[in-house]
Description:
Largest sheet: none
Helix content: 55-70%
Distance between the termini: 32 Å
CATH topology: Hypothetical protein af1432
Order of helices and strands: HHHHHHHHHHHHHHHHHH
CATH architecture: Orthogonal Bundle
Shape: globular
Amino acid sequence: MKPEDLIKGSIRLVSLPEIFVRINEMVEDPATSATDVGKYICQDPALTARLLKIANSPLYGFPSRIDTISRAITIIGLRGIRDLVLASSTVEVFSKMSSELIDMNRYWQHSLYCAVSARTLAGHCNALHVEPFFIAGLLHDIGQLIILHKLPEMARETHLRAGDSGMPLSQIEQEVIGFDHIQVGVELLRFWRLPPSILDAVGCHQNPERAEEGPLGAAIIHIADCLASRVYPLIANDSARKSMSDEAPIQPVALEITGLPMSIGEEIREEVEVQFSAMQSVLLSRAA
């Protein structure tokens, strides 16, 4: 069995809503205007409301209220709006999953905290576009949910062993399954036709120096994942969870690649927590 086999066998689970597929096509079509995209989004009142809440949240911090999608697109950009639709769609697709091995609420809290941290770190690194880092952070562990759904018994063994031993879950998955959740996640993102930079950031976030598309994205997701693990660790075993939350060491190579100081977690904590709280009320209410 290969990681792509899990994706091919889970088409109903892994297929994104039609509205995202269509918006993605429109954004990639040079003949499509921002007005066209705005009109299409407005056909979905619930999505429109979520996007406006996000646009008016501390994530962006605009001084004046944004009350139309066309205004949001003008300020955030077509690709930024597309990425926010992807974030909302992903939570919608996977929100009905449940598992005794993972606290799903904690899973989404960890993922969202990682996403907000990654976006903030990207800003500190003067990245031109920060939304892709948000998406990579949100989806960095998405392969875990596919494995839980398709290989529940193997998932149980790997999670229990990770909790008991304190070893990285991905290392145990390699031993038990033959591949890990990171590889599965990359195959899912490839199925969704996300850009290579996001695939690379997710696929190499545990080893940023191996990234082929440029190590900055992977290094940022690595640091963001460590920061999220300190606040919302995923391991089920309480003692292992406490150990992870106390440590979650950042690799020196990630700091070298980004040029960020070891103290960056403390420096951005307040900013991240404000943004996380706002985004949690918009996105994660659908996963509760």
